[in-house]
Amino acid sequence: MDYISTRGNAPALNFEGATLAGLASDGGLYVPRSWPSFTKAEIAEMAGLPYAQLAQRIMLPFVADSLSAERLLELTTAAYGRFAHAAVTPLKQFDSQQWLLELFHGPTLAFKDVALQMLGLLFEEFLSRPNADGTTRNLTIVGATSGDTGSAAIDAVAGRAGVDIFMLHPKGRVSDVQRRQMTTVLAPNVHNIAIDGSFDDAQAMVKRMFNDTAMTSRFNIGAVNSINWARLMAQVVYYFAAALQLGAPHRPVAFSVPTGNFGDVFAGYVAAKMGLPIERLIVATNVNDILHRALANGDYSAGTVTPTAAPSMDIQVSSNFERLLFDLNGRDGVAMAAQMAGFESTKAMALTNAQREGAAGLFSSARADAGEMAQAIRWAYDASGELIDPHTAIGLHAARAAGIDASVPVVTLATAHPAKFPDAVERATGHRPLLPARVGDLFDREERCAELPGDYDAVAAYVAARATPKA
Ligand SMILES: *Cc1c(COP(=O)(O)O)cnc(C)c1O
Known about the structure:
Layout: E1 2-5, E2 13-14, H1 15-21, E3 30-32, H2 40-45, H3 51-63, H4 69-81, E4 91-93, E5 98-102, H5 112-127, E6 139-144, H6 148-157, E7 163-170, H7 176-183, E8 190-195, H8 199-210, H9 213-216, E9 221-222, H10 229-245, E10 253-258, H11 263-273, E11 278-285, H12 290-297, E12 299-301, H13 321-328, H14 333-346, E13 348-350, H15 353-360, E14 363-367, H16 370-384, H17 390-401, E15 410-414, H18 422-429, E16 450-452, H19 456-466
Parallel strand pairs: 5-15, 6-7, 6-9, 7-8, 8-16, 10-11, 10-15, 11-14
Antiparallel strand pairs: 1-2, 1-3, 4-5, 12-13
Bound molecules: pyridoxal-5'-phosphate.
């Protein structure tokens, strides 16, 4: 499989190249040249496979020219062996229609671990292969986090050879648990940076660095944000895992996805393209509802970010939406580049008819405010005794409001462990969720973090002074 840019003006790369590159050189995002698909019989045969084997089956068509089937299974076994639940992503039932897919049993308590544990191993694998001239490879990862990507990425690469990681987070806008999960990792290849500004400001700086030749000529800059295709590929697996348990491929399943950067729900779109019978993908947003407006009436226009109790969804610009728009518009890279240039200059764009109609066939959307979020946390607790986190609660609110036919199971993706956001959970239920033992003495450990102004040049200079130049 090779990978092409959504903006049509970057070289096609194989899986290894797309994984190490992250963003394409024309500013676009890499997508597979075509969608591999499974027959109904092939999907039926996957029922009951252990998670690591299912992951190997789903990922193999995407990686085939870069990894053998045997090596891929070794990597999926290592990545998912670190999860605290034997099922890796267990399903729980609320009532006759509503289900919860728990994606937070990894080391840093959010669904990001499912993808990043795999990505850390892929980086190590590919960087261990020497360049054609025999020199060793290294990678400077630069990322922005609204909270959970940062800790999951840092856990996945801390101490690994060949990789330095620089992680930007918006100062004061991530929870204490989220911040400490990043800043207490003292491995010398880990660099945390708190910037004055929002997540979108941090993400814009990261994107700018990828297109800054003064930086890219000196350093191999790589991405761990969900602009990296390998992350989305790994996330496709749990859609299959959940649907197979609920009767797929013989019965369709709907999913409700707490959405920020549109990575997780795009993985659901990929699962549908690969043949999984998905009745509907419900895009759940908080009051930062650009995606809800885009899907409901074609208006993709960024406002200002309102901080909420679900900070990983406090996003106005959803990078991965471009992958969907590209696919729905006949994969026309020239048109996509023009559409995105318009968005970048005016912060607004209208979806084309093909994009609106294509999206409407599979996606619906809903928005939850603070009261609806708290109500969903209480409903889950009353229905089953489960404490759910604020992001998951927004998904559950949308799932229950979506009006899906009663014969179709609706699975809400539980994207974070409730103990990551204990205050909101306690306010809604009167019960304070406890951190699982596997995170250890998080609140007693030393923190290390630089603070920088919301200024690109300051961040670039900080990275340049500490990163390992290209060989
Ligand atoms: C990252 C994150 C999201 C949003 O996922 P996207 O792939 O960016 O849409 C939702 N919930 C939690 C807890 C997250 O960490």
